[in-house]
Amino acid sequence: MQALECVRQAYLMFHSMGHPFLRPSDYFADMVKSDAHMEEIKGVVLKEMKKIEDVEERRKARENKKFAKEVQAQKIKERAKQKKEEIEVVKKWRKQRQQSGFDKESVGDLDLAFDGDRKKVFQRSNKKRPSVSPGDRSGGKAKGPDKKRKSREFKNSKFGFGGRKGLKKQNTAETTDDFIGFNASAEKKRVK
């Protein structure tokens, strides 16, 4: 409080004498600290500000994410509502057409019915393919047994003709009655 009172008295004295006591705007004085030191301080302050900004951005992103979920849910509800309204409009239009009996006077010059072959629109073309049997689904590429490809013949000669192999190992009436190759002495040794 004493220092503040002294400053007030000094201010009044300088003012009454007409002496300048405030620093002019174009006055330059040497800094107490060096420029290098001030650069380091500036770097530290900028780092702290960057950290604060990053924290704020993350906080805003979290809030925006929550808000975005709400907005997305709202949009989905709006789309469902709009779709429902459009379906209702179409239903009303169909009902009006049914009540009017589909006559052209109620519809006007606009003909909304199909004018032409519906078969062309809704059914597959019935063009016959040359050299293809009606039940053939291979696209006309199937060939008879006399026109096999060479690669198929090679594979058949190398691997056989396919089919189930497990049936070859099953016992049949002939194989169970056949004792050729059965060695009784070897069987006795195995049982012991």
Automatic annotation (TrEMBL):
<dbReference type="GO" id="GO:0030687">
    <property type="term" value="C:preribosome, large subunit precursor"/>
</dbReference>
<keyword id="KW-0175">Coiled coil</keyword>
<comment type="similarity">
    <text>Belongs to the EBP2 family.</text>
</comment>
<dbReference type="GO" id="GO:0034399">
    <property type="term" value="C:nuclear periphery"/>
</dbReference>
<dbReference type="GO" id="GO:0042273">
    <property type="term" value="P:ribosomal large subunit biogenesis"/>
</dbReference>
<feature type="compositionally biased region" description="Basic residues">
    <location>
        <begin position="121"/>
        <end position="130"/>
    </location>
</feature>
<feature type="compositionally biased region" description="Basic and acidic residues">
    <location>
        <begin position="77"/>
        <end position="91"/>
    </location>
</feature>
<feature type="region of interest" description="Disordered">
    <location>
        <begin position="118"/>
        <end position="192"/>
    </location>
</feature>
<dbReference type="InterPro" id="IPR008610">
    <property type="entry name" value="Ebp2"/>
</dbReference>
<keyword id="KW-0690">Ribosome biogenesis</keyword>
<keyword id="KW-0539">Nucleus</keyword>
<dbReference type="Pfam" id="PF05890">
    <property type="entry name" value="Ebp2"/>
</dbReference>
<dbReference type="GO" id="GO:0005730">
    <property type="term" value="C:nucleolus"/>
</dbReference>
<dbReference type="GO" id="GO:0006364">
    <property type="term" value="P:rRNA processing"/>
</dbReference>
<protein>
    <submittedName>
        <fullName>Rrna-processing protein ebp2-like protein</fullName>
    </submittedName>
</protein>
<feature type="region of interest" description="Disordered">
    <location>
        <begin position="77"/>
        <end position="104"/>
    </location>
</feature>
